[in-house]
TrEMBL record:
This is SDR family NAD(P)-dependent oxidoreductase. It comes from the Bacteria. Residues 5-307 form the NAD(P)-binding domain. Pfam families: GDP_Man_Dehyd (PF16363). InterPro entries: NAD(P)-bd_dom, NAD(P)-bd_dom_sf.
Length: 323
């Protein structure tokens, strides 16, 4: 049984990746500092689902910025690969707290790389972001220059990507960087639009929309993202790979699906479009198809239907989650 270290294991994507890894016969060592960037109740719920599989799951409530704690984890386990999915996320919040984004997303990833070098762990996966493509021509391809990040969040991810290449070049680490495009689904992040819009709709509250709703996103269902991330465990050398839906939808279309499957009409409150946001994302996934034999399977309509259903089934505690 191979052992995979997953950081950010109580996070939205990290928990789904871990669930799939366990189902595929891996043992997962999970790390998460359970910070309160968003309501920790949802992180605790995700973690509780994983802890029902204790024979295949070991959890450490630590921070990837803490070298001493990290070293103990690497010493205690024979780790075959590391998936660094821990990150400070959120474009707007990164403008308020830029330092924590650099210490977690850049320095924290450097800590991971150093321990992989020290303990001779060859395979590393880094979760990165489509936010790096701001201002580039669509559809976004991995070969585009991403040297003009427009938020501290994107800049911190660019730093982590650059450091990854250094460790590949110097020490031969096999590193796959997966750039995610607007991930959504059950147990999603409360700071993201799908979670918020569903909750507000069920509560009968107005939806806060930045801009006129015409902006488009390559909404990608979490199960598809998790499958692609796991496929990136294959030996690839050094690669940057888009994981997206390759089918942008307008925000207004996503809202329409929420209204249909919640059987409730939404009210809207429009706010100015945020300077650090981008108007559209669109992933070219040719590389993911070629290298990983991966493409998304869940349409936005089906994904929203599943997410609304999960929200209703868990409404007793979800209605208390703060946005």
């Amino acid at each position: 049984m191979k052992t995979i270290l997953v950081t950010g294991v109580a996070g939205f994507i990290g928990s789904k990746v871990t669930e799939m890894l366990i189902d595929q016969g891996y043992h997962v060592v999970g790390i998460d500092n359970l910070n309160d960037y968003y309501d920790v109740r949802i992180k605790n719920w995700r973690l509780a689902q994983l802890e029902t599989k204790k024979d295949s799951f070991t959890f450490y409530p630590i921070d990837i910025e803490n070298l001493e704690d990290l070293d103990r984890v690497f010493q205690n386990h024979k780790i075959d690969a590391v998936m660094n999915l821990a990150a400070r996320a959120g474009v707007r919040y990164s403008m308020e707290n830029p330092h924590i984004y650099m210490t977690t997303n850049a320095n924290g990833h450097l800590n991971i790389l150093e321990f992989c070098r020290k303990y001779e762990i060859q395979k590393v996966i880094l979760a990165s972001t489509s936010s790096l493509y701001a201002g580039q021509k669509m559809p976004f391809t991995e070969e585009l220059p991403v040297n003009t990040p427009i938020s501290p969040y994107a800049a911190s991810k660019k730093a982590a990507e650059a450091m990854s290449y250094s460790y590949h070049y110097l020490y031969g680490l096999d590193i796959s960087i997966v750039r995610y495009f607007t991930v959504y689904g059950p147990a999603g992040r409360p700071d993201m639009s799908v979670f918020r819009f569903i909750k507000w709709t069920l509560e009968g509250k107005s939806l806060e929309i930045f801009g006129d709703g015409s902006q488009s996103r390559d909404f990608t269902y979490v199960d598809d993202i998790a499958r692609g991330t796991i496929k990136a465990l294959n030996p690839l050398g050094f690669e940057v790979i888009n994981l997206g839906n390759n089918n942008p939808d307008k925000l207004s279309k996503m809202i329409e699906y929420i209204e249909n499957y919640s059987a409730q009409k939404s009210q809207y409150e429009h706010k100015p479009f945020h300077k650090a946001d981008i108007t559209a994302t669109w992933a070219d996934i040719s590389k993911a198809k070629a290298l990983l034999d991966w493409e998304p399977q869940v349409s936005l309509e089906e994904g929203i239907e599943r997410t609304v259903k999960w929200t209703k089934e868990n409404w007793d505690w979800l209605k208390k989650v703060k946005l």
